[in-house]
From TrEMBL:
SMART domains: REC. The modification 4-aspartylphosphate is found at residue 52. One of its GO terms (biological process) is phosphorelay signal transduction system. Keywords: Phosphoprotein. The keyword Phosphoprotein applies. This is Response regulator. Residues 3-117, 154-270 form the Response regulatory domain. InterPro entries: Bact_response_regulator (IPR050595), CheY-like_superfamily (IPR011006), Sig_transdc_resp-reg_receiver (IPR001789). Residues 120-142 are annotated as: Disordered.
C-alpha cells in the first residue's frame, strides 16, 4: 500500500482515480490546487505524486520545479497527467518520472504507481501506456500478450437511457476499458456477439423485452455463457435478486450510476484479467 498525493483539477477524473486508488488499498490525499499540492507534499510525506499539468493555482511545470528544488520533496516520484501536445521528452527532462496521456486510464496509472513504488530508484522513461519496463528497472517487462489483454477488454452497457449511458461511459473509459452502449433491445444479441465483451451491464427496465428475458437469452449464446452479467436497476429487492440469479445474472448494481460502485464491479470481475 502506498500513500498517494493526487493533484487533479478535473472533478470526474479526480473521483475515478481517487476511488480506484482506494479500492486497491492505497491511502489517497487529493487537491485540485497546485499550490496546496506543494504544501501537502511536505506535510503529508506521500510515497508518490500524481500531477495534473493543468492544475489550478500552480500548474504542473511550476509544481515540479518547486518539488525538485526542495530537500524535503526532491526524491518523491511524480507522474504527470499531460495533454498529447506536450512532448514526453520535455516532461522527463523537467523532472517527472513518467507520464500518462489525457484522458488518463486508471489502470495504466496504477501500473506506473506500482512500478515506481516498487523500484527504489525512480523508473525513468516509462513514457507510453504500453511501454515495457526494461530489466534494468528491476521490474518484469510487459509482454505483448499482457498488453493485448489490456487493450482488448470491452465492457458493454445495455440501456436506452442516454444520461445513464454517458455516466457509465465516463467511468468505464476513465478506468481504461473499451466501452460499448447498446440502446436498441432488438439489437442486443447480435451486437453482443459482434463485440464479445468481457463484462455486461444490463438495464432491467427496457422497452419491448425486459432485462430478465434478455439475460436468459444471452446465457443461451455459447460464447457468452460465462461472461459476467450485472443487472442494473432502481429496484434492489430480494425477490428481484432471486429472479435475476435464476436467469443467470452475476450481480446487481443499483441506480443512480456512481463511480465507486461501478469501479467495484470492474475490479471484482475484471481484475483477474488486468489491473483496473
Amino acid at each position: 500500500m502506498a500513500k498517494i498525493l493526487l493533484i487533479n483539477s478535473e472533478r470526474t477524473s479526480r473521483q475515478i482515480l481517487e476511488h480506484a486508488f482506494m479500492l486497491y488499498e492505497h491511502e489517497v490525499v487529493t487537491t485540485q490546487h497546485g499550490d496546496e499540492g506543494v504544501t501537502l507534499a511536505v506535510t503529508e510525506s506521500p510515497d508518490i505524486i500524481v500531477m495534473d499539468m493543468d492544475a489550478v493555482g500552480l500548474n504542473g511545470w511550476q509544481v515540479i520545479k518547486v518539488l525538485k528544488e526542495s530537500r524535503t520533496t526532491w526524491s518523491i516520484p511524480v507522474i504527470a497527467m499531460a495533454d498529447p501536445t506536450i512532448t514526453g521528452q520535455m516532461l522527463l527532462q523537467t523532472g517527472f518520472d513518467t507520464y500518462e496521456r489525457k484522458p488518463v486510464s486508471a489502470r495504466y496509472v496504477l501500473q506506473k504507481i506500482d512500478a515506481l513504488v516498487d523500484s527504489p530508484s525512480s523508473v525513468k522513461g516509462l513514457s507510453q501506456p504500453n511501454a515495457p519496463l526494461s530489466s534494468s528497472d528491476g521490474c518484469a517487462p510487459t509482454t505483448s500478450d499482457d498488453q493485448y489483454q489490456l487493450d482488448h477488454t470491452t465492457v458493454a452497457y445495455v440501456d436506452n437511457n442516454l444520461a445513464d449511458s454517458q455516466a457509465m461511459a465516463k467511468i468505464v473509459q476513465g478506468a481504461g476499458y473499451n466501452y460499448v452502449n447498446i440502446s436498441e433491445p432488438l439489437q442486443v444479441l447480435p451486437q453482443l456477439i459482434e463485440h464479445s465483451p468481457q463484462l455486461i451491464f444490463l438495464e432491467l427496465a427496457l422497452p419491448v423485452v425486459n432485462g430478465y428475458e434478455l439475460c436468459a437469452q444471452i446465457r443461451r449464446i455459447s460464447s457468452l455463457k460465462k461472461t459476467p452479467i450485472i443487472i442494473v436497476t432502481n429496484n434492489d429487492r430480494i425477490a428481484d435478486r432471486f429472479r435475476a440469479k435464476l436467469v443467470g445474472s452475476s450481480d446487481f448494481l443499483s441506480k443512480p450510476i456512481r463511480v465507486k460502485p461501478v469501479l467495484k464491479v470492474l475490479i471484482k470481475y475484471l481484475s483477474s484479467r488486468s489491473t483496473v
